[in-house]
């Protein structure tokens, strides 16, 4: 067993993506829009600080107005992003002297992976310029521009330029945070490398990992490496998430490892009513008892993705018996279920539910009451299993599965599309309103 586990773990360490996302130029534009008020607030704090006491009172300048006029974030294919900011400054040096100046900041940004494995926003180049727009006094009577330069700490602005955006590194780190699925099962999305930059947008590849009861589990190895499908045309959505078939199979494998599909079902039958169909049941129990079905997975679930639909194949073994006073099984039945999955997104969670049973097959695995025909098994237990198995799947997944996301942003205008072997989720970003 230890050799087998070591092989599984070593196979799992082959790092390959099973999901990812493309942040489009539209998404970058939205991030710039929502970052503009934040940037203005940060710049006000930095620029409207008390004046430098080393300057004489005659030449001291006070910045009393900071307004971000333009704030844009554009994609530079193969390189990163370009941040462009124009800031209008109102400066007074005396009661009768006011001048307006414009601070322009041009910075090149990119996201790289730090030694801890987290994505980090980095400034690779920053060029600030300062020019005068207009003044209430003649040029010779206004304080010199060099004094204004002393007031504006250009190096500090360039050092902290990434803080002007609403997705600095604390939020990027939240991308790889563990998210609960069930009380004992958690999911994480681990970035595999720094993002790539193309005309379509910023492409991030992620690998899903799962923990069950606090321990990482070795997942099945994907037979085919997954890569983000290139959109046929430029997308109007801010973001397109993509999930491989392997992502969904791994999810249900993790839930199986957590025992999420093991369930006890009370049937409408009793030992007396069952004895009318299977006579030997009557000899096992002296009193009439409710018939109970204990279901557990016998092999790993499997997910099939086809154009327009997702199918979960669940392989269960159902022990059928009665509690007298402990559970006493007299039949063991293999149950193979194919259930249609419905996929939707609420906030930042994918809601997965079993919409309908497409196919179900019962076969006798073991019996203490003699041979039982498949047709009789279906007559006795099929209605209960058909109703209760989807109910159990839905009970397990009712909270949804958190999607990769950064803190304070949620997803809107979502369209979930199932394709052969992968699922696409085009959506828009929305900054959540602060409370309190």
Biggest β-sheet strands, sense, barrel: 10 strands, antiparallel
**Would you count the extended β strands for me?**
20
Secondary-structure element pattern, one letter each: HEHEEEEHHHEEEEEEHEHHEEEEHEEEE
Tally of separate helices: 9
CATH architecture tag of the largest domain: Super Roll
> CATH superfamily membership of the largest domain, which one?
Bactericidal permeability-increasing protein, domain 2
Provide the β-strand percentage band. Answer: over 45%
- Do you know the CATH topology of the largest domain? Bactericidal permeability-increasing protein, domain 2
**How many domains, in number, for the residues?**
2
- What would CATH call the class of the largest domain? Alpha Beta
| Broad structural category | alpha+beta
Helix content: 10-25%
Q: Globular, elongated, flat, extended or rod-shaped: what is the shape?
A: elongated
The low-confidence parts are: 1-13, 138-144
Using only C-alpha atoms, the radius of gyration works out to 31 Å
